[in-house]
Amino acid sequence: MGKDYFNIVCFGEILWDILPNGAKPGGAPVNVAFHLNQLGQKPAVISRIGNDQRGATLKELMDRKQIATTFLQQDPIYETGVVYAKPDENNNMSYEIKQPVAWDYIESNESQAIITKGSDYFIFGSLAARSPCSHKTLFELLEQANNKVLDINLRAPHYNKSLILDLINRSDIVKLNEDELELVTGWFSKYTDLNDRINQLQDHFKIATLIVTLGAKGAILRQNGKTYVHPGYKVIVEDTVGSGDAFLAAFLTKSIEGDSPAGALNFAAAVGATVAANAGAWVTFTREAVENILLKTVS
């Protein structure tokens, strides 16, 4: 296996989350890559920064964390992405996403197609498809990808029905939260029960693996005709920024390592809780710390 082999490719936005307690590096695909990297995987990030200090600092942070920046493009015109994140009374975040920014202009090239075709998983979200340039690049790479992992991030007004349904239809693994599930299934069904919505979405699009995160209530996994439910781990929440991204990274890691669906879900819930108990998306943790959460009573 060569030094340029990446088993997972993460495509999409890279940015700064401007939080009440300061600026933190973020962007869902990069957050996933950060956690994949610290869990022992070898992810590549395809994104774009501006020719500015914010971009330079992001690249420096990625280099320091040993996250490959080979496919991190630099835009000569548009600035590095910024998102203003604000928590509500339940610590759920709302986002004001600046547009246009550098990651709206991710260009396609042959080297990106090669690493995507050679990887096992291609992770992407709906947000990066908001602009024509990155949209075009994404859909070109989806043609090369093997296991396509869609982490839906519905951020109004940066999506539309036809785009989301198209992306779901192309995906092998789909992760979304309860609110997103309600919105998406409401486009083509009248079901109101959570489990009915999950079954309808999976059956309608023939999704091999479907994950629905429920915040403090845990998560539900539907895979190979079976349903797995995890009620979540109770922690004191600092903020929820990036906890879903960490969850996905942990789930994929355990799946790659050959763990059972229930085991992967359990580990993912613990990692998500670990990140939610700390500020920002790039929370450094050890497997031992996660094991401590796994030993706690599930409630």
From TrEMBL:
Domain Carbohydrate kinase PfkB: 24-281
Designated name of the protein: Carbohydrate kinase
PANTHER family named in the record: CARBOHYDRATE KINASE PFKB DOMAIN-CONTAINING PROTEIN, HEXOKINASE FAMILY MEMBER
Keywords recorded for this protein, A-Z: Kinase, Transferase
Keyword Kinase applies: yes
InterPro entries for the chain: Carboh/pur_kinase_PfkB_CS, PfkB_Carbo_kinase, PfkB_dom, Ribokinase-like
Any one GO molecular-function label of the UniProt entry: kinase activity
UniProt similarity note: Belongs to the carbohydrate kinase PfkB family.
Organism: Arachidicoccus ginsenosidivorans
Matching Pfam families: PfkB
Keyword Transferase among UniProt keywords: yes
